[in-house]
Request: fold
Amino acid sequence: MLDKTLDLEKREAREVGCFGLVGGRAIHLYTQDSIYASQCQKKDGPFMCPDCATDAVLKKCVDKRDHFAHKARLSPVIGPEESELHRQCKDEILRHLQERLPGGKWEKERPIPENKEKKIPELRPDISGRIEKYPIAIEVQASSLTVGKIVDRVTSYWRRSINLLWLAPLREPLGDLPFRPRLYERYLHSIYYGRTYYWWAGQGLIVKPVHYGAEIRHVESRQGYDKDGNYYSGGGYDKPYRIIKKPSYGPDLDLVADFHSYLRDTFKPENERKAVPMCFIWKDKLKKWWKDPVLK
Reply:
């Protein structure tokens, strides 16, 4: 049971991009005391992840060890179990490209052969063709990929001088409420200089650029006594979430007219595992449209 629960926690942590709750430990929102899931009840909350400041939910289980989970809505990205919906997305985009650019030789899942001499593996982009003189590959990402696999694919396209446009297809519009982008969504956000491109059925060749703005939580002032009779006081401050973001929308973009070929430089953040390699991207022509909040 222990191994099963730990695997579940690690899978959730990889998806979220935060391992702060692995091991069944959270902290109390006001006292900042460490709390283990096996030693508390829901009434002992509210709980918070010690690493990312996201609300934590206590999970009391029959067949698994008690544990905590991050609480926040996810984007409605099409999942791996929705293969038919994913196929329809690719077909719609492909049909519009073929009608708009009949000379672009647009195809779905066209194999690009392996180059053994240069050690470049076979690629099979969801959609590929040309816009003017530029070779374009469009990946319609309908399931979670590890950052490592994305880097491998980005590098392979770069070595073939192919411009890459990565879209995140949604079942429905994203909406305006704060949400928790998956790890791969946040990595795409880094590739494209602070925006992720979302698309949903009926959009044709229109994509929606979204910047992940900071979401600030206010921790109210609280004081009282804990279950052991100890007095506590805490709160009264603003704190930004690390993995919960507020969507900031740019204008609708036509992926033919409003994008251009761009050589993206290598980007190395503090977390080396999230480094972006040099690559050719099919990037929008917008300037930064969002403002970063200032904490007081």
The chain has a mean pLDDT of 88. The first strand starts at residue 25 and ends at 28. Residues 83-100 form the longest helix (18 residues). The two ends are 46 Å apart (CA to CA).
